[in-house]
Amino acid sequence: MATKKFAGVSVDVNDEGYMTDSSQWTKEVAAAIAAEEGVELTEKHFEVLDFIRNKVADGATLTIRGINKSGVVDAKSFYQMFPGAPLKKSTKIAGVPKPESCI
């Protein structure tokens, strides 16, 4: 396991850069990870990240369809907010493990 410094905080990450201890997550850490991923966070982004963190904490499996049905954001907006690989980027920024459905 490696550590990486985000916003002056050392966090534990795996070989793909996903946090391995979600308790180390803060909004400042999220903003630093987002900057690396080319995403500038807004309040709407944080609403989505909170939704993702809560779902993972509840043991739910994350999917784009599930996020679309969340009422927090629709799929089109989700793709615009986290361009390229929205589920991979959003979970990385949210400090949760990469979903098994992502390759």
Task: Describe this protein's structure.
This protein has 103 residues and is mainly alpha-helical. Helix content is 45%, strand content 10%. The protein is globular, with a radius of gyration of 13 Å. It starts with a strand and ends in a 9-residue tail after the last helix. The mean pLDDT is 92.
Taking the alpha carbons of the first and last residues, their distance comes to 20 Å
Helix coverage percent of residues?
Answer: 40-55%
Mean pLDDT: 92
Put simply, the count of helices is 5
Give the overall shape, derived from the CA principal axes: globular
Global structural class: mainly alpha
Identify low-pLDDT runs: none
Gyration radius, in Å: 13 Å
Which sequence of strands runs across the widest sheet? 1-2
Largest sheet: 2 strands, antiparallel
Order of helices and strands: EEHHHHH
Give the amount of beta strand, in percent. 5-15%
Layout of secondary structure:
Blueprint: E1 2-6, E2 9-13, H1 27-36, H2 43-57, H3 64-68, H4 75-81, H5 86-94
Antiparallel strand pairs: 1-2
Task: Give me a quick take on this structure.
It contains five helices and two strands; from the N terminus they run E-E-H-H-H-H-H. The chain has 103 residues and is mainly α.
Key descriptive features of the protein:
103 residues, mainly alpha, two-stranded antiparallel ribbon, 2 strands, 45% helix
